[in-house]
Specification:
Layout: H1 9-12, H2 15-21, E1 26-31, H3 34-42, E2 44-49, E3 52-57, E4 60-63, H4 65-71, H5 82-93, E5 100-103, H6 110-123, E6 127-131, H7 152-165, E7 172-177, H8 186-199, E8 203-206, H9 214-230, E9 235-238, H10 248-253, E10 258-261, H11 264-283, H12 296-303, H13 305-318, E11 323-327, H14 335-338, E12 347-348, E13 351-352, H15 353-363, E14 369-373, E15 385-389, H16 398-404, E16 413-416, E17 420-422, H17 424-431, E18 437-442, E19 457-461, E20 480-484, E21 494-502, H18 504-520, H19 536-545, E22 551-555, E23 559-561, H20 565-576
Helix pairs in contact: 3-5, 5-6, 6-7, 7-8, 8-9, 18-19
The protein binds sulfopyruvate and magnesium ion.
Length: 577
């Protein structure tokens, strides 16, 4: 179901009358279920008229008894109950916003018709057309079928009863003349029209199964006279199924204000389905039937599945993306300052490093935060985070700690090193990215003097070129070719800041590679001396080597890593600013 055409009954019901009052000739197309309803409602052709662009579309929907019954595999003889029809009607209403005209068949007896009017009006239908035959009617198009006409006075009473129960003055009851279908003379149709108009109908439909439009044109002439005589201006309706060489313009010129193309979506779907089914049988596979079929994606698009996908992705991007902060290691530099506390508890401008990180993440709508603790585990205190423990933090690496949070990874996650501070804008930009694996990388690395004892994660990007002033870079080029701390800083294009995002797919790829490496390799691996000391960047390099695409989001400054006292001073300075 598409939500694009969402509307309310009271917003829709009056649309048909409004079109007619504006003098429009209303072009109507049949719909028999939700999907055909969406097509009839939304389809447009574009062209040009006298040098101006022109868009043509249908103005309203016809809920046909013939096609609703046929789509349920039934003949059009009022054997499909009104409640079943109402289900189709509601199905179509739910996905459309144009006015609907319902084919009410005979309407049953006057009591039944009152309920029909009440239910249709309540649902937002704009008009019902009832035909002056005896219940249960037979479809009008098949030659040689017995057509029993209702007594015109009985039918007129049904119209009065219907008009008496409607609540709004927007809803229309239209009487359908079956005289010509039943082989009666024109005079019978004209007399009946007068009786029904006097009973208060809002319009008259003249039906015909003739190949030529002559008889309905003749009726239209009489109709003008009747309306003049009765001093009424009531809508005239036709259904040009058999006389379909006659154009809408010709019908409009003859006085018809509603023109109903009554069964064409069902008939064309039937033909295509037959052809497709036979083609598959003949070829014993569906390949040859492909040209007869629309793509799955087109259907997905029409019924709103692609919108759902997009919203899911947006949701995934903005809410509930778990963040894992591996913070288990002991920091040799701050040993003295911290008195046994982990580095995440380092105070900067009155808040701990971890509290600063939580603040930034919360500002970016990220509230599912897991800290992996190890050294000084009991000293970690922060509100609004879960804490998991890596008991073996002394022997592993930061990567082992990260994988303690494996349960949080499955649907996509963010990894954040425990010792970096950054501006809110970086997280916000990261949340807007669509790639499966994305590392945040600073491009100011080339201007940095390497600092003694500072281990930095360098990146060489795939399409490296010396940064030029007037260079155009495309997002798709932001692919990591190499990552690691042993890369010569001179050749590096970027520095990985310790912030990465994995989509569900990206997380699956990461977990799969990790499991394989840990299980099947020993000894030295990528930049690590031993597999047990495997780093995050080693695993990423392994993924690149295996052909997974690792993207980076380029930033220029706006972040700090806290590796020594100088960094703390720098951070405090920027907080005070
Ligand atoms: C329908 O579409 O169900 C109609 C029109 O009533 S016709 O089939 O021509 O009778
Ligand atoms: Mg019908």
């Amino acid at each position: 179901m598409t939500l694009l055409n969402n509307t309310l009954p009271e917003q829709r019901r009056g649309k048909l009358k409004a079109l007619l009052e504006k003098g429009h000739t209303v072009r109507v197309l049949e719909a028999h279920n939700g999907l055909s309803g969406i097509i009839a409602n939304n389809i447009q052709v574009k062209g040009e008229s006298e040098g101006k662009p022109l868009i043509r579309e249908f103005d309203a929907l016809w809920e046909s008894s013939l096609t609703d019954s046929a789509s349920k595999g039934h003949p059009d003889i009022e054997v499909v109950t009104f409640d079943s029809r109402l289900q189709s009607i509601n199905e179509i209403l739910a996905v459309t916003n144009k006015p609907m005209i319902v084919d009410g068949d005979t309407g049953g007896d006057a009591n039944a018709f009152e309920y029909t009017v009440s239910k249709l009006e309540r649902a937002g239908v704009s008009a019902v057309i009832i035909e002056d035959k005896v219940f249960p009617k037979r479809n009008s198009l098949e030659p040689g079928v017995q057509q029993n006409l209702e007594d015109p006075e009985v039918f007129a009473q049904k119209i009065r009863r219907g008009k008496s129960v409607q609540k709004s003055d927007e809803f229309m009851i239209i009487a359908r003349l079956e005289s010509l279908i039943a082989g009666k003379p024109m005079e019978d149709a004209v007399n009946r029209a007068i009786i029904y108009l006097r009973a208060g109908v809002d319009g008259i439909m003249i039906h015909s199964k003739s190949k030529s439009a002559d008889e309905i044109f003749e009726f239209a002439q009489h109709y003008k006279d009747i309306c003049k005589q009765l001093n009424l201006n009531k809508t005239l309706v036709c259904v040009p199924t058999t006389y379909n060489q006659t154009t809408e313009d010709e019908l409009s010129a003859a006085g018809f204000r509603i023109i109903i193309h009554a069964n064409h979506l069902l008939r064309s779907a039937y033909k295509a389905m037959m052809e497709t089914a036979k083609t598959i049988l003949r070829n014993q596979r569906s390949f040859e039937a492909d040209p007869l079929c629309s793509t799955v994606r087109e259907i997905f698009k029409t019924v709103g599945f692609l919108d759902v996908k997009e919203k899911d992705q947006e949701n995934e991007q903005t809410t509930n993306v778990p963040v894992i902060i591996p913070a288990a290691g002991e920091d040799p530099v701050f040993k003295e300052t911290l008195y046994g506390k982990p580095k995440a508890m380092l105070e900067i401008s009155g808040k701990t490093l971890l509290e600063h990180q939580i603040q930034t993440l919360n500002n970016g709508n990220l509230a599912d935060i897991t800290v992996i603790a190890g050294y000084g585990r009991d000293q970690i205190k922060a509100e609004g985070v879960s804490i998991l423990e890596n008991p073996d933090f002394k022997n592993g690496s930061m990567l082992n700690s990260l994988f303690i949070g494996k349960e949080k990874m499955r649907n996509g996650f963010i990894m954040l090193y425990s010792d970096i501070l950054m501006e809110d804008a970086i997280i916000k930009e990261l949340m807007g990215r669509q790639e499966d694996i994305i590392l945040v990388a600073d491009n100011s690395t080339q201007y940095h003097e390497p600092q003694e004892g500072n281990i930095l994660d360098f990146i060489i990007c795939k399409h490296q070129s010396k940064p030029a002033r007037r260079e155009i870079r495309f997002a798709s080029e932001n692919v990591v070719a190499k990552i690691g701390s042993k890369i010569n800083p001179e050749t590096a294009s970027h520095e990985f800041i310790g912030l990465a995002r994995f989509s569900k797919t990206g997380a699956e790829q990461l977990i799969e590679t990790y499991n394989d490496v840990v299980k099947n390799y020993k000894g030295q691996f990528q930049e690590s001396k031993d597999i047990s000391r495997l780093n995050f960047t080693d695993l990423i390099q392994e993924m690149i080597d295996r052909g997974f695409v690792v993207n980076f989001m380029e930033i220029h400054k706006g972040w700090l890593e806290i590796h020594n006292a100088e960094h703390i001073a720098l951070a405090e300075k920027s907080f005070s600013a």
